[in-house]
Amino acid sequence: xxxxxxxxxxxxxxxxxxxxxxxxxxxxxxxxxxxxxxxxxxxxxxxxxxxxxxxxxxxxxxxxxxxxxxxxxxxx
Length: 76
What we know:
Number of strands: 6
Structural class: mainly beta
Strand content: 35-45%
Shape: globular
Mean pLDDT: 81
Order of helices and strands: EEEEEE
Radius of gyration: 13 Å
């Protein structure tokens, strides 16, 4: 899997368990989803990510998508 980094308001978040990126030539915008498990996270602080925050997804250091957070879907 590629090295994925999500920049939210300039802060980098890493350590994703899965990364999905959708791009299509006939689509106006791309989309992505990321999954992680807080149980295995090295950071004990909650991630401050909110809808409307600016974001950039980087794969192996290359920016592949830029935009804003639409939604966050925590699952337990």
